[in-house]
Amino acid sequence: MAKDFTKRSEDYSKWYNELVLRADMAENSDVRGCMVIKPYGYAIWETMQATLDKMFKDTGHVNAYFPLFIPKSFLSKEASHIEGFAKECAVVTHYRLINSPDGKGVIVDPDAKLEEELIVRPTSETIIWNTYRGWIQSYRDLPLLINQWANVVRWEMRTRLFLRTAEFLWQEGHTAHVTAKEAVIETEKMLNVYADFAENWLAMPVVKGIKTANERFAGALETYCIEAMMQDGKALQAGTSHFLGQNFAKAFDVKFSTKEGVQEYVWATSWGVSTRLIGALIMTHSDDNGLVLPPKLAPTQVVIVPIYKTEEQLQAISEKALAIKKQLEAKGIRVKFDDRDNQSPGWKFSEYEFKGVPLRIAIGPRDMENGTVELARRDTLTKSFHKQEELENLVPSLLEEIQQSLFDKALKLREDNTHKVDTFEEFKTLLEKGSFLLAHWDGTPETEDKIKDETKATIRCIPLDNALEDGVCIYSGKPSKQRVLFARAY
Amino acid sequence: MAKDFTKRSEDYSKWYNELVLRADMAENSDVRGCMVIKPYGYAIWETMQATLDKMFKDTGHVNAYFPLFIPKSFLSKEASHIEGFAKECAVVTHYRLINSPDGKGVIVDPDAKLEEELIVRPTSETIIWNTYRGWIQSYRDLPLLINQWANVVRWEMRTRLFLRTAEFLWQEGHTAHVTAKEAVIETEKMLNVYADFAENWLAMPVVKGIKTANERFAGALETYCIEAMMQDGKALQAGTSHFLGQNFAKAFDVKFSTKEGVQEYVWATSWGVSTRLIGALIMTHSDDNGLVLPPKLAPTQVVIVPIYKTEEQLQAISEKALAIKKQLEAKGIRVKFDDRDNQSPGWKFSEYEFKGVPLRIAIGPRDMENGTVELARRDTLTKSFHKQEELENLVPSLLEEIQQSLFDKALKLREDNTHKVDTFEEFKTLLEKGSFLLAHWDGTPETEDKIKDETKATIRCIPLDNALEDGVCIYSGKPSKQRVLFARAY
User: b vs e for B412-432, b when ≥16 Cβ sit within 10 Å of the residue's Cβ?
Assistant: First the structure.
């Protein structure tokens, strides 16, 4: 058990913050709300990026890069967009500093005021659709399937590392289509890519669904989402995919001529996931001993620690360890051999346990005599002894097993804490325990708001696979055709 | 020859701008000085990134991410740094927009003024060294070898796509070391990585050298650089690696305790290359028919174009083409089969020629009868016929040959246009022709400035492999120990 480390049961939020800092994932910077992503956290983001990027390319998308700045006037062009975004944002008003007259540092040059202020992008629909106007003339130019990897800024007042920061890293896909139907198919396709990634890489089960009007992206006709349950029973929105209709095409006058030569507005989608996924990853699997990482995303999947007293012992162990490392690396496994001599094996064990390395192999002098190793699993904290020659086949299958086992455990947690409720009393009671609640709702934003005000629970989504079922709204008693998913959320 | 396309001999600068636009590499956005990098240009950047990233990791570096914003006061902490940077930059002064009282759009909320303005990073030494203070306590924490992939902003007044834009993409390495010697070794190591990348991937020969005090990075003790000759004889600085001494450690109070327990300031380096390299790539190899790309960086290395009249012909050709594609892809070659039926073969030939695809394979009905293909090389514009079964071995070796041939051609251009000069008259005459000039200089910034004022030529570098040689300064007539490299530059 890591020393002086808050337990989840004591204070989940404090546990999370301590974990992120102590595992060297990220830290707060001296710039309000902006984080520094440290190498260990960034390595996870790099694997996420590479994996998603391949998935996007396999589904026909290409990458491009659009400006960081958006002219203020662009934000007003799509009426509902400006309401939802661009209120809390970083505004560039000047473009020069000059030496301070008092000789101390620099001041903003009052003569270098921009004619029109620039907004640091909170999302890029406006600047991208302004650009697409020049790129799309004919149906031959469609579909346009573009993704961007970028940083964005939203001036959040209360920030938490990875989960909510003023600046964060993300990808945003922006596609353009001939028909509404094609755009909806794209929206759903990318939702499925996200769900696939969440479940098969993060080992995090998700509910796929559609947002209510209240929770919809500003400027979208329909927002699809994936929602995951964290260990405290709260929901985390892990990715969204928006069907934007013709809203942005109309706002930025993007038309194409059809095969028949008619001018029509283009249909749009946008979709994104961010460094928030790292927060989701942490809160899904980690425990009171620190990080637990699914093998597919662990920067180091296997660490080998030598246990020795003499230089000769180290040399013999190193030779064996490097042979094992090479063997495993040939199978595509990320292995680290930690032969630093300024830290004890015990220190190293704690370190890698805290940092969530899925498998630890220890080799001592007796192992060398017996041709064995000690193998420790991070997820179960169990140890076992194996013949050295078994490792080549055992390690890959164990990594798969861990990946699956983490998913199963997370799924069980969600299933155990998802309930159908039919009364508002039951709703409130179960909510306190941390639950996903499937309940009838009368379909009005008013009722949704009232439930939120009274309980802090929001409708996370209308699940895609929802069965239709007659019932009455738990709050208003009015008739309802289906249950929706309520939870408190990050 | 591409229609309505400016020739290099007519107007090199116009040729460049047209090329970037017509080859779909990038375009200017509606945000002053900021470019949109289009998918074709971005694909080249992605290959550059992936290649460099691997080179950085192979030399022990890891990636991290630091904030986009820098508090204004940070910039003043290193005296010479603020003089060189942070004057022309984007300044964030407010963090909120509100609805305009006249109901038209949004205005900046006067009540949401930041206490301290934030600067959009022009480079990250200050924010990173402010962070390193918390990361470095002991010699055990060193060396710290970190790289960042990021966007940066410098408010340039005259911008050109890729070469000089207000926002650009780059990587910046920031390392911390125990001794000055170790930091210098790192500075030189990364210069060599850049030179290796420029020569072996961009096929662009470079001169490695050291900048004079005038041209040194603001805050560095020594700036190393690689300089390449463009086709017009002008120089382009393609990458820099800085030995920063203890300047930033002192400015941000970053000390470590040595093995002996003494507190010392840390030694630093920083090094970077940017999307500017894409401009260098274009100006090194491209011609009056459009882009010429070295195979290693070409998004598509081989394009296969079917020539057919009937549906049956297309089907037979497609089968063969896809078999060839599969065969070549198995060898790691990037192949595109363009069977679009809404463009003619002639149109496609022009298109891929303009976009610099290194090899084009055309297959028609007669080729199908004879088991042949027509193969066209983009660099030489030559065509040849080959048996289909030869392609598997021929194509990889041809791609290598093209890569080498582009390098050789660029090297010859540079050698033909590099001259030793001993008089200022000769200097001025040869400079007009577009040359690299090796000339004696008296070592003073004053002389350097005067030569620049009179000729627009700057000292690009003092070449690393310079032979010492007694001589007299071409301008002042004062004694000199070595020749330095002069040129006009981008």
Answer: ebbeebbeebeebeebbebbe
Q: Residue A311: CB partners within 8 Å, gap ≥ 6?
A: none
User: Domain A418-487 has what CATH class?
Assistant: alpha beta
- Residue A345: alpha-carbon gap to chain centroid: 34
Please tell me which residue of chain A has the smallest CA distance to B104.
Answer: A76
Size of interface A-B (CB pairs under 8 A): 189
Distance CA(A73)–CA(A174), nearest Å, equals: 20
Other CB atoms within 10 A of residue B323 CB: 11
Could you write out the three-class secondary structure of A413-455?
A: HHHHCEEECCCHHHHHHHHHCCCEEEEECCCCHHHHHHHHHHH
Mean pLDDT of B212-236: 96
Q: Where are the domains of chain A?
A: 12-94+102-285, 300-398, 418-487
Q: Which fold has domain B12-89+121-285?
A: BirA Bifunctional Protein; domain 2 (3.30.930)
CATH class in words for B296-398: alpha beta
Q: Where are the alpha helices (DSSP H) in A201-295?
A: 247-251, 276-285
Beta-bridge partners for B169: B151
Residue A68 has its nearest CB partner, among B42, B63, B167, at B167
Q: Tokens 């989608």 belong to which residue?
A: A269
The residues of chain A scoring below 70 in pLDDT are 1-2, 79, 84-86
- The model's pTM is 0.97
What angle, rounded to 10 degrees, do the helices at A276-285 and A12-22 form? 110
Closest residue, chain B, to A46 (C-alpha): B63
* pLDDT at position B83 over 80: no
Q: Which residues pair with A240 in a beta bridge?
A: A225, A272
